[in-house]
Amino acid sequence: MSALKAPEARPRFLHFFKYRSLTVLVSSVIVVASLLLLSATASAATEVIQFPDEELATESVLPVFDQPVSTKNRVVALEKRLEFGAALGYALTEPFYNPISLAGQLTYHINEEHGINLFGATFLQGLSNEANQLNPIPNSSPPINANLQYGAAPKYLGIASWQYSAYYGKLSFTKDYVMNLHLYGLLGVGMYGIGDSSNPLVSVGLGQKFYFTPAWAFRFDLRALVYQGPDVTSIRLDNKTSVQAASSFDQKLFIEGLLNVGVSYMLPSF
Amino acid sequence: MNSKKTATCAVLLLMGTMAQSAVSPVLPVGVDAVQVGTVQDIGERQSLLIEMDRLAELAPAPADGATVAESGQLSEEFDGLVAENAPTKRRRVVKKTSAQSSASGASSPSAATKAARTGDPRVSAIKREEDRARQAVRRGDYPEATKLFFNLLDKETNPARVLQIRFILGRTLQEMGLHQVSAFPYYEIVRTEVKKNPKNKYVRQSLERLTVAADALDSDILLNYAVRLIDEEEFPAGNRDMLFYRRGEVRLREGNYIEAAKEFNRVRGNSVFHDRARYRLGLSLVEAGQLEKAEQVFVATAEAKSSTDVTKRARVNAMLGRARTLYQRKLFAEAIDAYREIPRDTEQWHDALFEVSWAYLQDGRFRSALSNFHSLHSPFYEEFYQPESLLLRAIVYHYICRYDEMEKTLGIFERIYGPVQKELRNVLGGNMSPIALYREIRKVDENFDVLKKTGKRQLAIPFLVARQVLREGDVRRSLSYIRALEREKKKIEQAPATWRDARVGRYAKRVVERRMEATQLAVGRLILRHLTRLQDELAGHMEQAGLVRIDMISGKKEAGKKEIAGKGTVRESVDQEQDRSYYVQNGYDYWPFTGEYWLDEIGNYHYVGVKACE
Questions:
Q1: Where does A81-266 sit in CATH, by number?
Q2: Is the predicted pLDDT of residue A174 greater than 80, yes or no?
Q3: Given pLDDT bands bounded at 50, 70 and 90, which one contains residue B456?
Q4: Cα B397 to Cα B417: distance, rounded to the nearest angstrom
Q5: Which of residues 279-338 of B touch A (CB under 8 A)?
Q6: Which of B576, B591, B599 lies nearest to residue A45, judging by beta carbons?
Q7: Which structural domain range is residue B122 located in?
Q8: What's the CA dihedral at B198, B201, B202, B205 to 10 degrees?
Q9: How far, in Å, CA of B326 to CA of B329, rounded?
Q10: Whole-structure pTM over 0.80, yes or no?
Q11: Would you say residue B257 lies in a domain?
């Protein structure tokens, strides 16, 4: 059984339509790899089989129901399910320290829309490539080391968020392969461990999951982290010989971007 | 003398303007605006004026039996008072008619006026009460007026005046929006006078008012009663379309299809009843066996409405009517085309989806039928009662030797409708009273969404069946009547306490409550009838399912034999060679079905399975 739908002739009103086209646009780049992988299963058939033309859809309006629901019998149902995830994080705006982090998350979906997400990440230690190049600072004479390794570096991150799964959709890559999607928003609070200090933060995020089975999915999260933390550029470190306490730096408001790419697995509902 | 002149003139308005004011709520603006105040109406008012002048000669019967008090004046004055409260247009008519009637009033001082001077205490009391009633109407205080008129009924012994007061009481009650209560005085007038004095103008006007009340209440009983007795020539021209339409309905229910068609055909194009009348005209012709004519009517109706909203109910009903007529004419291919034209974003589309499946089968298009069944048996229709379509699906699978699918379908049928049959048997065997049945169905009607989610098990009647019963036209109509009665009861309860506790208030409450009880009982019986019918049908379906299952087992056996003999049953269930590029290139989205149903995919499924036998 397959479904053929007419090209849009009249405006559509339910959100998932917009989402489908938006999803295709947004995710097309991200899922190229998946596409390549999955295209191996594409049919090589070339024979054209036509359904009676007069039976093809001629309108794209929706049937009328008392309470219209966009999808029934969802392949990926969220309600009362626990979701585990592992991801690799990349701090998009981190200039001095290693931006890579290892993250894990746990989400409990209260219903199809709302859930609680717990996110934890530990940052790999060391300086970023750029910061390494500042030991010594180019063209300084005599050579001066920026010594950013003695500054307060990010260590861990813990966020508890409310997750709102706003949109459910699907993508068809091949004739027989359909991938379901969830687009969700995240809003949370947490702690950001930088050096020897722990700093409260507020986080806002957007994410997308691409399900390659009803339980397994690729998960992409993009979070903005807003926190007051130590500014490593507020004091000179070139004359320091050990890691400085976070309190020695001035406090500054930071807005950082954190991208997580990983997989998630959902347990059956309970 | 002066007051007499005014009163006499006002009678004219009572008959004309009151009729308009009471009718206008049930007719949309525009229709009565055009029709009110036609030359014919004014002529009618003038003739009524003369009649009311004659009535003025009547008087309350005094204690000694002599004619003493003013008479006729009551309704005349009432008319005038209403006119004074009415918009300018009405007042102009009053002035005009006042001028006309003043002449007659001046030339012949009424016997009633003379009688009033005699000083009979009973007559004086009636007079005082009449005055108070007039003032109440002048203030627009209809509750007070009804109280007084209701009391006057007891005091008055002059039969002509009793008739008059009863009529005016009905009118004031109607002004309060109590159509059901008002129907009773009208009914009483008709009942007592129709045989001995059918030409009496109160009989005629009461019938007219009764029709208006019935229309407002959507009451079949009142309608049937009034419509049978009414003389169309004496019915106000402005409301005749309603009369034709309602009379057509009555004839249709009686099975007098040709007469029904004639009545529906008389409804004019500018009437609000026109669309409905055209549809019912088509239906009447179908019932009368004149299918070609019926189709022409449906086509014309659909085309006439095609310039407006394409999803307009009248248009879509006509389209559906046409498709059904074509099916009945056994023109299945044409019927399929007609069904497919029905817009998806209409309520009628669901019925079309099911009915076209039958047409596909009749036309031998099994693949198309199976495509439709996939939509019909999706969770979007899980609350729909459709055992027949499941059985049909199993039969189609049998035709193409897809026994596995057939078994699954039969399994679904038995899983869903087995318990339904059992519960239905319990309900009908448990001697549930009609009132209990009514309450059960009403519960579903009122709390449909809540019950759908959580409370299906709280119901004695299976939810699917309850929903099906609720879709029946006669049940829907009766429930609408009960709702109108409930609204009326609420109005009574919200009326001032002095009115509620007065005799008329208690009477009104009693009338509405009794009507409600009687109607609930009638609806309960109707529901019982539908349940019994559904049970019988379901028993038939179950029996057929059993036979189909036997056929399936035998078919499976044969298929197995052929396979062993190497005669090659096709093993693939799906046409793997199908290429989607044709559709994609033509702007379609192609989605393989993966188990979930999307709202925008309903109606667009295409079966890609293949036949497993020759």
A1: 2.40.160.20
A2: no
A3: low
A4: 19
A5: 337
A6: B576
A7: 2-142+149-172
A8: 100
A9: 5
A10: no
A11: no
